[in-house]
Amino acid sequence: MKKIISTKNAPAPIGPYSQAVLTGNTLYTSGQIAIHPESGEIVKGSIKEETKQVMENLKAVLTAAEMTFDDVVKTSIFISDMNNFSAINSIYSTYFDDDTAPARETVEVANLPKFVNVEISMIAVK
């Protein structure tokens, strides 16, 4: 049985998908990009500011599912330029404890929705 997770504290989906799906004790988040949930606008500025908005959007989705970053077991990071890896990682790393950080892959892609620079999705288990 699946439960759709939705919160106004993260951007509304821009297509036919849910912010997250909870099945059993496992949460699958959709990829989040740097859309500000209140304004619906893309956060422009540095890659660090963009990454922080992505992580805050994911935090809101986790919270709606009564989870935290401590529950995250896997992340997928899609970036438009591998040269941004260090800057993205510097923000991403502040959300996790080094000793218990989730498994992860980081992939450079040709384009992302709305031509943003970073998109991150997560799998969490309670």
Automatic annotation (TrEMBL):
Pfam families per the UniProt record, alphabetical: Ribonuc_L-PSP
Transmembrane domains' residue ranges: none
Lineage: superkingdom: Bacteria
GO cellular component terms, A-Z: cytosol
SUPFAM superfamilies: YjgF-like (SSF55298)
One Gene Ontology MF term: deaminase activity
CDD domains named among the record's database cross-references: YjgF_YER057c_UK114_family (cd00448)
Similarity comment: Belongs to the RutC family.
PANTHER family: 2-IMINOBUTANOATE/2-IMINOPROPANOATE DEAMINASE RIDA (PTHR11803), PROTEIN HMF1-RELATED (PTHR11803:SF58)
The protein's name: Reactive intermediate/imine deaminase
